[in-house]
Structures are given as structure tokens and as C-alpha cells.
Amino acid sequence: xxxxxxxxxxxxxxxxxxxxxxxxxxxxxxxxxxxxxxxxxxxxxxxxxxxxxxxxxxxxxxxxxxxxxxxxxxxxxxxxxxxxxxxxxxxxxxxxxxxxxxxxxxxxxxxxxxxxxxxxxxxxxxxxxxxxxxxxxxxxxxxxxxxxxxxxxxxxxxxxxxxxxxxxxxxxxxxxxxxxxxxxxxxxxxxxxxxxxxxxxxxxxxxxxxxxxxxxxxxxxxxxxxxxxxxxxxxxxxxxxxxxxxxxxxxxxxxxxxxxxxxxxxxxxxxxxxxxxxxxxxxxxxxxxxxxxxxxxxxxxxxxxxxxxxxxxxxxxxxxxxxxxxxxxx
Length: 330
Hints:
Layout: H1 2-20, H2 23-31, H3 35-43, H4 45-59, H5 76-92, H6 97-108, H7 114-142, H8 148-169, H9 171-184, H10 187-207, H11 211-238, H12 245-259, H13 270-278, H14 285-323
């Protein structure tokens, strides 16, 4: 029911957007687009997926962690299949459940135990979010046209980045944060927060044991998100428009963060509206709407590529549904 509601909200927002813009102008934007830049920008999905798969492979226990590894390391091809299948599931399951499913599949294949699998996925998502906030904070600080709304967003993003770094770097702060969250959270989410706090403690113990390994994963995440934002900048080139790179560094993450709000289906609608609003000083509305469609393709293309691998995971997914009522079962 929640997914149906989110899909309805997405369709409603898109309906409002396309009712207010010139759809013929939108079609014309694509007809006049630069085919070379369009191919380059869309083609970046492949190396970005491979880099994300390589990072997942590096997250797995290495030689120093033989006591935690129950089978040979995760193969590169298997890591990429897990990434693609998670992309499919994230399109149809609520709350990024595809990533939790990824942890379950790693445990089910015998690569490592359940608590460590969850902690690896939690750390992977934390690195993604903090890398996105880092680039967004840098772009917003250097963004020249800041009214009061942008000052509020700058303060919010920088504050979120600081809290995230404290969670990642301080075990005591993380314990206090999750205890406070359990105290103020509704009863339904307390168990999930408790399980997440335990996974976070496991993650701390695992990654801070090898700081060089930690820096490699964090550095890779920052690089991956730089290329994600560069891809969106190339989308603008493909549409024969222009936005300064530093402005794109601020605006693209804001649109992505808007798409993470649990209001719409896979961020469709909220992300498009944010792009139209934020990029207004640089590109016209039909071009911004076209940019929103291209940004959606960043999520749609990996999901399509993951469909051939989905069937073998569906049986495992049915078992996952019986365990998600208690995340500690993972």
C-alpha cells in the first residue's frame, strides 16, 4: 500500500510538472540534444556500477579477517550482480530494502555472518551519504548566489556532514546518538534503531581495526560520488545547456537528497521538481525537466541490467520477508 501511495504521489507531481511546462519544448530539447555527450553521460553508468561493485568486494573480510570469513572472498562478478539486483529491489521495495536484501544475500551465500553483513551494508550506505554531503557542502559554500534558503540548506548540509563524521569516527557519540534515537522514536521503530545501533558497533570494531583499509573505502566512495555528479554535469552538456561546475556541485546533490525523501516512488517527482527549482537560474524549465528524466535513468538503467539476475534471488527474497520483522535475524 505504501508503494502504491508513493507511486500515486510521483504521478501527481509529474502531472503538475508536465501540465505547467511546454511538453513540445521538452521533446524538442531531446531532439536537439548532443548525441555524443548523451552517449558519454549515459555510458558512465557502466564504470560507476563496476566501481561500486569493486568497493563492495573490498568491503568484504580480507586475509587479516580469516576468523570472520566463512568462505572465499566475494568475487568481482558476484559483487556487481548484487549491486544490480539491489538496484532492481530499490525500485520496488520501500526504504531502500534492496540494500538490506544485499546483506541477506551475502550471508545466505556464506560469505560472512549476518551481523557483519548488515554492518558492511550500513557502512557502505553511510559512505555514500557522507560523500554526497561532502560534495554538496563544498559546492554550497562556494555557491555565489545564496539567498536565505540556500543559507539554511548550507547550514543543514554542513550540520548533517558533521554529525555523520562524528557517528563514523566516535563510538561513544554513536552510542549516545542511537540511545537518544530509541528514546524519542515511536515504538514501531525502536527495535530497528536498536538493531542498527548494534550493526554500527560491529562496523566500528571491524573498520577501525585497519585504518588504511578504512581510508581506501572512504576515498573510493568520495571518488565514486564525484563521478556521479560529473555525470549529471555531462547530462547538461548533452542537452546543449550550461551550468558552472561548482554550481552543479551544489545543486545536483540537493536534487538527489530531495529524491531520497520517503514521499515518492524511487524519488521520481520530488527529484524532478527540485531540479527544475534549483537549476532555474541556469537552464529553462523544459531543459530542466529533460535533465530530471536523464537523472532518473541513472537509477533505471542499472535496475534494467539487474533484471536477468533477479529470478535466482526471488526465492531468497521470500525468506527475507520473514526475517525483516526483526532485523537481528539477518
